[in-house]
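A quick aside before the break. I want you to see a complete sequence-to-structure record at least once, exactly as it would be stored in a machine-readable document. Don't worry about memorizing anything.
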Amino acid sequence: MSWQGALLSRWLRYTEQRVLAQATDPVDMRRRFERKARFWFWPPLGTIFRWVDLAGGGAPLPALWVDGAKTTATGAILYFHGGGYLVGSPRTHRAMVARISALCSLPACLVQYRLAPEHPFPAAPMDAMRAYRALLATGIPPERIVLGGDSAGGGLALSLLAQICAADLPRPAMAFALSPWTDLTLSGDSYRTNRSSEVLLPPGRLAELRDWYLQGAAADDPQASPLFADFTGAPPVALLASEAELLLDDSRRMGKELTAQGVTVTTRIEPGLPHVWPFFAPMLPEARQSLRWLAGQIRVRMG
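That is the input. The structure line, written in tokens, reads:
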């Protein structure tokens, strides 16, 4: 691990993890995240941002188009931000996604899906499906769409992929997930074995945060936990996770389940890094390296 990674892990453990362990108000958590994202994370120079309403009528579905390369290529990365289904927005994640966009020369669409506890499950997966249908309705060919997300958003991207397969909609080119939360039953071994190595997520509170989202729904519902979903006929999936994070087994088990269902899967596990470390690309060399790897996966699929 680089010295930047070691320093970042120490800082996260003694600041952000403690804040998350004590937070009780989702609205305040969102405000804090927005302020920190504006201060710490910045997109590549020249990135173009444009807000739209994907709904085109009816209930609004805001989204932020991000073009990090000013490309004219047809296609899009349909991206879902992390934040435990409680916090986060296109604004908090636009810098990281702009870097992905620039690296693979493909614009990205960050969906502002509804958040819990005001809008509990299944609001988020419903919004994800609405967003995918909206992109198809604009004329973007499905084979030019990539699904992606991080943490809870990574789980949401995979949930959407399963929904697409179940509805027999045209399949996207691929999906990727960064440190995805795929198992809301919290049954993976890493929830126990990685308690001491996790530097961002508060181990003792994940069940509580999950319950704010589910509000009585079954944790093993495939739309909430894509680990239990049917992916028959799904396109390739790329998974990225850290060996040190609580959600390690969410990626490992997801990869094994997808492979068992005949899906082509590439799983990359990095040693010692924080949960969703690509988020810290401005300061972390491992993050920039991982984003280059991810962009390579996308370019192979998009041709």
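Two observations worth writing down. The mean pLDDT is 95. The chain has ten helices and eight strands. We'll return to this after the break.
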